[in-house]
Amino acid sequence: MSLPEELPTAFVCNCDRSARLLIEQLARRRLRVPEDVSVAGFDHSYVSVAEGLTMTTYECDERTLAREGLKTLLKRMEGKGGPAGIRIIEGELVEGNTVATLERQP
Prior knowledge:
By secondary structure, this protein is an alpha+beta fold.
């Protein structure tokens, strides 16, 4: 993973593993999470990511995700095609301490 010279104030990663690798790379640049850069993950697979840091992430309802995926796969195997559109599987935000609170400017 390579980072640009000029960094954004926050990253939202596709999974907690990517977020953890990003945090390690930021630390090598001597940047602090969340003081210098906020990092959020997705999938709630890592709780502790570094000394004193717990991941801010999003946890999906894995049972529902698996059930809907299996139903879709079975329909396709039966030749009935797949669903049109997007399925939304709810989850919940898991608040850690890898994301800073921004103050709104008036």
